[in-house]
# Entry
Amino acid sequence: MIPGSTQQPRGRIAVWTAVAGTVFIAAAAFWLSFTALADLARRSGVDESQAWAWPLIVDGIIVVATVSVVALAGQRAAWYPWLLLMAGAAVSVAANAIHAVVAADADVPSALAGSVAAVPPLVLLAITHLTVVLTRRFRGEPPTQTAELVSSAVEYLSPEAPAHLAPRELALRMKEDGMTNTAIARATGVHPSTVGRWLATPARASASEGGAL
# Structure
């Protein structure tokens, strides 16, 4: 079994599970926040026929920024969606807390009502960050076999490699190290079918090269 072959599928499953969880939590947080913010807009004097647009603007930033943060994980451009995500979450947290305090029953403490209302957008931020961390972790780790093959190709093609090393001999050495015909073809600059012929008759190829020299 190739080292790391079981770890990679598990890593991908973890990433996809985290992404799916992020989408589910984002949808639930959006639904809860939408209801509260629409009611807050109505209480603030916005016409009832237009009140639904305000939560779409506030929470829409969070949804779009969340998708952008996951898509741009590890890239320099990710700072801008992160900024929008934090700003949108801050507005959503404040608005949800204000609505909870205004709409809560008289016997419910204001601090309790505000804290409960602030949980969904805060959890959304935390789960998004977790997903980005997992995405970076497993995007940045190439399979063990691939890393070894690339290292072998670099070693053979480096300036320190013997100048007299023929392409066929190079192909044979790469094959001994476990490289595929396609990888060998790319490294030596020939067609994969040529590599196949070299490897099928290595002895004859070496003999013909010796006679030609």
In short: The two ends are 42 Å apart (CA to CA). The CA atoms of residues 88 and 202 lie 65 Å apart. The chain is about 75% helix and 0% strand. Residues 7-43 form the longest helix (37 residues).
